[in-house]
Amino acid sequence: MCDIYRVAMTVANASRRIRHAVLAWDGVEASAHRFGGIEFRIGRREIGHVHGDWLVDIPFPTRARDEIVAAGLADPHHVLPESGWVSLRVESDADVGRAIALLRKSYELALRQRPGHRPADR
């Protein structure tokens, strides 16, 4: 995809809106992502990252990824399609909401897998 296409298909302030929502969740921190953009973490575990206002990448266990892709909520990762990662191109306000919902799902999975987690915690 060329840069002109990306610019034409972005949603103004999508990254800012996603960041604002995700940073409201307990324990989430944001930092620069090694391939550009902003990544969100709980401790050492990444729950996803945003590339500008046009792309969100989110890790899931492969089974969850398969369900998300089958439901049409996201695509297999744009570089590593066989991994558990999904990619969501942000082309509308609805995509911003879907990105936040999928990041929330990744966040909740990460919380459940943390050492010392008890089901009554959330």
Could you explain how this protein is built, in words?
With 122 residues, the chain is an alpha+beta fold. It has one domain: Aspartate Aminotransferase, domain 1. Helices cover 37% and strands 24% of the residues. A 6-stranded antiparallel sheet has the order 1-2-3-4-6-5. A hairpin with an 8-residue loop joins strand 5 and strand 6.
User: According to CATH, what is the topology?
Assistant: Aspartate Aminotransferase, domain 1
Chain oligomer state? single chain
Quantity of strands, as a count: 6
Determine Rg (CA atoms, Å): 14 Å
User: What are the segments in which pLDDT stays under 50 over at least 5 consecutive residues?
Assistant: 1-8
What's the helical proportion of residues?
25-40%
Beta-strand content bin: 15-25%
CATH class: Alpha Beta
Question: Helix/strand-derived class?
Answer: alpha+beta
Mean pLDDT: 87
Write a compact overview of the structure shown:
The protein contains four helices and six strands, in the order H-H-E-E-E-E-H-E-E-H.
List the helices and strands and how they pair.
Blueprint: H1 3-8, H2 14-22, E1 28-32, E2 38-42, E3 45-51, E4 55-59, H3 62-70, E5 75-76, E6 85-89, H4 93-113
Helix pairs in contact: 2-4
